[in-house]
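Recap for those who missed Tuesday's class. We walked through two folding examples back to back. For each one, the amino acid string is listed first and its predicted structure tokens come directly after. Nothing is annotated here on purpose, so try labeling regions yourself before you check the end of the notes.
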Amino acid sequence: MDKLSVVRKSRRSRSHVLLGSVMASILVAAPALAQTEESEAQSTDGAKAPLSSGTIVVTAQRRAQNPQDIGVAITTLGGETLASLGVTDSTDIDSQVPNLIIDPMAGSGTQPVVFLRGVGLNDFSLNNSGPVGLYFDDIYLSSFSSQNFLLFDLQRVEVLRGPQGTLYGKNTTGGAINYISNPPTDYLDGYVQGSIAEFGAYEIEGAVGGPIAEGVNARVAVARHFADGFFVNELTDRRSNGTDLWALRAFVELEPSPDARILLRFRADINDTPFSQYERYETIDPVTGGACSTGQSRAGECVDVLGYRDTTKRYRGNFNREESIDREVYGLSVKAEFALGDVDLTSITSYEEGQNLLPEDSDGSPLQLLAITVGADTDTFTQELRLSGETDRLNWIVGGYYLDERTRQNQSADLFRELRPLVASLAPATNPGGFDPFGAVLGTPVSFSRHKNQQDSQSLAVFARAEFALTDQLTVIGGLRYTKEEREFRSEAFFEEPTFRVPLYQADLAYSDDDISGNLAINYQPSRDLLLYASYSKGFKSGGFNGGFLFQAAELGPFESEQLHAYEAGAKWSLPGHIGYLNLASFYYDYSDLQVFTLVNTGNVPATILDNAANAEIYGAEAELFLNPVDSLNATFSLGYLESELVDFVSAGVSQAGNRLPRTPEITFSGAISYQADLSDDLFLRPSVNFTYTGHHFFLTENQPLAAQDAYWLVNGELTIGSDRGWQLAGFVKNLFDVEYNVNVNDLSDLGFHQVVVGAPRTFGVRARFDF
């Protein structure tokens, strides 16, 4: 481990020096860069209206626009809104976005599983990316390792629903989520904030920005979040399912001329959170030895294959493994903009690297039944170039995108270590170490397996999009994108013990594919306050390889590319008197060759399978209402309706046709209400409440009742007293009614249990903030 750490540090130093040289060369060679849209996407989300959408400007279509003027289903959350909703990391934003579900795969600090309008990927392998693209300051986060990060000093989040097959850096079939930081300003500003809450939680963050020289502005933001957690290990009396995070954001903006802007950005995220512990449902009847019913499992009447039954209360257990996540993510980017007459040129260059070690007590028990360690290191370089321009009736953009990524996985599965002494005593003396690595006791496999993969990926795309106003009311939009992707994948697996190694397989594979995607749309604005739109979009996501725990080379894949044809119609209405807006959207998806992850129980050892379903259908509708009848009152509501069906899919010989897609509740509903009362000329009191309703849904494509979550409500509240002079003091509560709910369930019936990732219980806290 020490040697590995030295190698990592050495590689990290070399890569940072190399990246610095590359960036410096780009900046020296580049001419003056353009100052594009003035005050790009500056939010008017003020301190007195934290839930107001106001007139937040978005850059969802690569230029500054009012979201009410865009014929696209988009939800925008400003920085003040996010703070008032209690959003602290990238997995929290789904609470106020219709038909969006984001869950951490294995608890706090682990990679997020993102499903948008039913489109997502359950896979926990760190070599794959999901069909919903995540962007941080316009940088595509290809690696799962970089997608879970703290949200602080944030200007806004934009959520685009539907395929993004034209403008966005990496083709995605589900949509795009862009997290956008507060940029440097030409005046001094900043804030300091701290909070304490139950379960040993505290958060400290702050930012400062302003001019440091003529034409040079900077901003630095730091955050520290910590919590012991709400889970208790009764064997050690230690807590888990908390957080232990550090983060840094640093920006330097150069404006060498009125037509020039260069933005340098550095990001660091460090995660030392103790790995979250699981609840579990045992699945074996202790009397008959057969499978338990769902009711028996939920009632705690069953056992696992070793005869263990968890009798502890919720949020408590007995765990023999307590280790921490070891994740470090560093990113450096340069965004350069410059004007060439009537044409704007934008260049975005980025490099990110992440090191991950995720050790878990997979069986959630005091016995050594299953322990998995997932490790992956990723290096990603991206380059995007865009040319854009406009006339009285035409807006156009053309560009290119390149991604180069290397992922190295080193992961292990320790299975049935509890039985090692028994196996050793029964195995033949001629067997090395007195151990049968292939499993020789009563048909029970006993092994420590290691799986190593290296994946090299390249993606190259060119794209073009144009908007042409046929009349003052009627606009047509068209876009095309050509994408070429290639992957090389080297994999090896073996059984491993201190005294010997037994190889299973070694494989060198390659995959490539190309595709043309795009969109056609029409916008009709019969009046200044009403926009009607209809669109067709095609999304494409490349195929790849299964990076899970495999024992046969044939299971590596490749799986094929998926395509989604989306048809959408909607309306955006600004309400009379400028008291708010109402947005409506309906959609139908024809989803073919969709990539589906299943954890298949074989009667021996669960197998991870990543394959293509022939097709699926998804349709639904969304409504978003914002009301601001008076300055002191804001209210937002969103409603999502979703139907999904796997039309044709067979996994491990079992048809799942007719099943709902995972994480697709039929109804999602949310709202947030804030009222501000002035106590004096500069003192105010602001109570606020927000809520989320999530309908019944399944976590797995098999649609098992045990791997499902019943409908539930979550309600959060906050009471803030503050001053126009910049200070605020708030008391808050999350999950006010202490609702018990699950955010993920994995079926390990071969071992006699289901893993259960639970949501957090009710939590009280106080927060103080000072803006300057």
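Example two. Treat it independently of the first, because the proteins are unrelated.
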Amino acid sequence: MLGVRRLNFIRKFATKNQQYFVDLHPLAPSNLLIDRHMGPSSSEREKMLAEIGCKSMDELIEKTLPPKLPRNKLPDWPVKTEQDIIGELYNLSKENTVAKNYLGGGYYGTYTPPVILRNVLSNPAWYTSYTPYQAEISQGRLEALLIYQTMVSSLTGLPIGNASLLDEGTAGAEAMTMSYTIHNRKKTHFLVSNKVFPQTIACIQTRAEPLGITVHVGDVESFDLAKFPLCGVLVQSPDLLGEIKDFSAFSSKVHEAGATFIMGSDLLSLCIMKSPGEMGADISYGSSQRFGVPMGYGGPYAAFFSAKEEDIRKMPGRIIGVSIDKNGQTAYRMTMQTREQHIRREKATSNICTAQALLANMAGLYSVYHGAEGMKMIASRVHALSSILKQNLQDLGYKVPTLNHFDTISVSGIDAAKLVETFEKNGINIRKIRNDTVSLSFDETTTPDDVNTLVSIFASLKGTNKNICAVDQYNKSAPEFPSTLKRESAILTHPIFNSIHSEHQMLRYLYRLQRKDISLANSMIPLGSCTMKLNATCEMIPITFEGFNVHPHAPLKQVQGYQKLIGGLRNKLCAITGFDEISFQSNSGAQGEYSGLITIRNYLKSTNNAKRTACLIPNSAHGTNPASAAMAGMNIIKVECDKKGNISIDDLKQKAQQFKDELACLMATYPSTHGVFEEEIVEACEIIHHYGGQVYMDGANMNAQVGLTSPGHIGADVCHLNLHKTFAIPHGGGGPGMGPIGVKKHLAPFLPRDVVLGLGGQGGQISSSHFASASILPISWAYIEALGGNGLAEASKHAILNANYIRKRLEKYYGIVYTGDQGMCAHEMLVDLRPFKVTANITEEDIAKRLMDYGFHAPTMSFPIHGTLMIEPTESEDKGELDRLIDALIKIREEIHEIETGSADKNNNVLKNAPHSLDEVISVNWDKPYSREKAGFPLPWVRTRGKFWPTVARVDNVWGDKHPSTVLPEIDFHL
């Protein structure tokens, strides 16, 4: 009720000079997030508006938005206090039943080490950092990701690992696509074992259809491998039934047939089991969730992926590599596939733009925490307990078809539905495989008492009272891992896995890594199109509530809290977007693009318009758009932009008319990636609809739309939403992300479907679980509920205010590439640096690196136009922080002027030598033609607010690509 009164205060006491909710009645509550989310105070807002040349926020918005742009005023729902948010989400979490789960299927119970839970997952220095595109200020998380890659490589026995994929199902689909690419897209058949997890098979089938790949699902070992030109064969061990096999001989047969051999694997099992590499696998994939990452109703977690060295350039996703800086010091960087989809566009082999970096870091650090011996101990205990259950079930007369197993056993010859129901009544979930078969999967959280309970229930169903003591049974006869599958090779041999044995050491190592990285805990991150906004603490706290850590395949009646949360979020997002339905199955923005296009594709097929595959994409489109369209089987048609940076309506009309019989859709970003609200966006949508196509809107720039306009009102049929941008989920150093899609009513039946739960539309499966990374949805729920309808609109307005303030102050020193008809930008702008290449031999990279010396992460570099920086401040930055960034850029302009006038050397200056590491500045031999002070403390506040020092000098990217190494070097890890 306090929130309702607060809004009444807004209406009653708002003054003529537009004092907003941040300066309100003294009787209003003090713990409203709405007061904390907006950066500028009322006095700052007045000064900023005066600088821009506007008398009010309303005047600013009227000058920025095109007059014909449809408006969308949100319902004025009550705002909530921070304590309301935490309390309501806690109560929702308690409405979920946290049953004892043996469901497995790729999701397992695990213990997150408290030192990692508190100092990584719950630490804004880790979760608010950005993707490590700027390596010099990302060395901490790059080192952590190299640990993850090293762990994956060691356990899978394959030399190259990437820095994580979105989930296990899509990792399997990426493996199929990679095998297709390895064979130059000439072999169009793919074989999958029918014992692979069903969600993975479904993801593979969805991905294969638009590419023209025929997927065969069956018993792979009896399949005639010579019958079809197979690009790849995919098996899984442990499989759905829990069986583990040595596929060494079979892999030879696959290779003789000229196909790529792929193994779905379990990292914990590989601690004691023969590795995929030792069995002849070319690619291995799977989930690292059970390495300390909660199940979270399906995610987020990091999928692992490894392959042979010769295929490194075909591997999907991000790869972290080892290089050197300009002084020869070891330095880490993203390598090979770094943003390759932006460069190769429709020729890219993957559209991956977001990884699961935060979760990969947790999984890698989990293996550091336990070390090689600890990991083997956990794996052996899991196997031993499941073996004890297996022996007792056989003694009771149950049929256990699983010959060799790691953690999962199957029971057949029973009434599966009845058995599942019986266990549910005892607070236990087991998996129904078939009508006569169930399975039980053990994990790190399984105890001897759990085994005793299971045996007791199974015995009672046989009419006996058999009780066991699992500990006594183990002491009498410890189960042995199958000798033919037992791992003989060493695991996790790198010193990092064998150096940290106490919590003191672990804590200090985590802080050592943390100090090497810039995050929002240090300063603003002004990335255009990536919206690095406040991730409020009250929004983050609930993700660790125990009640949100449930299995994604739990019965729906056990997840009523999640259903209420997701239902409420869906309703608010529909109001915000103007759409009729939302699907949460996409695990990233780029995956949302793909999901939206697949929905359009399925709709067109249903209306006998399968021939419509032409996708019109403006030159200004978001970087992943062409790659996503190609993956969806679309034929990409480029549309030109006019001199103002807008979609050329004339060219759009011509292309739409030319391809009218083949037109599937238009992909447009709004506001455009050029940083303006295009005047003719509604007309563009109408042109596409006139010729029978659909409009896909990229939601990357929704932070300027919410509460002002909406994709649905503008004319879009589908739009993805970056919850890790506009709706406050943090970027996590490169992930997690969420990219749900909103659609109009006619597309709703064709939304993605979940084959395990039977939820969704008629579309194919996009991600492993139906609600993707469901455990981070409370963040967006909290953000929307905390701000209310009015507050969300104010957030958009303040984002536009902050951007235009920067634009106005900078335009005296730099060119702004595009603005609207009245000189305004949207929530971001492109700063033109191209002239400096001619006048001073200075590039956008030089300026980006120099900004590090001022304590800032660079804006988005070279996108969408080479030679530019795209600046987006977000609404949460105050005037003081904006001024510091502006002052830094003005000072850099002065430094460029020194080069232009000849007072500084063109090749040896503060910009070309940037960034300046601490080692350089304090070195005895300082040989620069400028002072140490100028290098390290270019403005007074750089010193007084706490200098952030890059830990390495400028990284040598060319050296790194010429000497690819994707595992952690054996450097000194003495703590």
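Answers for example two:
The radius of gyration is 28 Å.
Confidence is low (pLDDT under 50) at residues 1-23.
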